[in-house]
């Protein structure tokens, strides 16, 4: 159990470090629906982070080598993808989505040329990996609320981007059809 907890702690730390790379949120203008989804997403992320940890404490199990390896891979790959997405977005990256008239470019390159929301793909991979590291695939159930929160957040962000970029965003949506996972969603 101790090695799993140590690996989980390192993975959780990597997730937090990647998030800290972000610029501080600059709240400009009127709150948007995307802005209002922050609390929902933060709550679901807390469940995805704490749930597997509590499960591992209440029902101690030694994680299998497969869970440790696949979980560690998901955390590392998710962290790398999230950092890449942040770098590609540059000044457009915000933890809380807001319209940014001072940065009037829709980013369509890098991971954004494959799916429209690679940062959320990365976040879901990180938290799924953390769940696997601590327990077994059953712990992935704690990620379900985060998936729902992410879908809600994406809807709000898509509305914001359509308002901000109009036909340019519609063209992008047609060329990059998938929001999170190619051929699925």
Automatic annotation (TrEMBL):
It is found in: Membrane. It is a multi-pass membrane protein. GO terms for molecular function: protein C-terminal S-isoprenylcysteine carboxyl O-methyltransferase activity. GO terms for cellular component: membrane. It comes from Galbitalea soli. It comes from the Bacteria. The chain crosses the membrane at residues 39-58, 65-85, 120-144. One of its GO terms (biological process) is methylation. Keywords: Membrane, Methyltransferase, Transferase, Transmembrane, Transmembrane helix. This is Isoprenylcysteine carboxylmethyltransferase family protein.
């Amino acid at each position: 159990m101790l090695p799993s907890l140590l690996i989980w702690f390192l993975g959780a730390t990597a997730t937090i470090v990647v998030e800290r790379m972000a610029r501080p949120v600059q709240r400009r203008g009127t709150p948007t629906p995307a802005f209002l989804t922050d609390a929902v997403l933060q709550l679901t992320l807390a469940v995805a982070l704490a749930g597997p940890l509590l499960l591992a404490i209440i029902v101690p199990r030694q994680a299998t080598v497969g869970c440790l390896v696949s979980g560690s891979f998901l955390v590392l790959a998710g962290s790398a993808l999230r950092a890449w997405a942040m770098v590609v977005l540059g000044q457009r990256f915000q933890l809380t989505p807001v319209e940014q008239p001072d940065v009037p470019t829709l980013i369509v390159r890098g991971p954004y040329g494959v799916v429209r929301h690679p940062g959320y793909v990365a976040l879901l991979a990180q938290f799924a990996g953390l769940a696997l590291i601590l327990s077994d695939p059953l712990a992935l159930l704690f990620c379900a609320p985060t998936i729902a929160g992410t879908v809600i957040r994406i809807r709000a962000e898509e509305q914001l981007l359509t308002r901000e970029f109009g036909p340019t965003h519609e063209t992008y949506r047609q060329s990059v059809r998938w929001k999170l996972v190619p051929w699925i969603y």
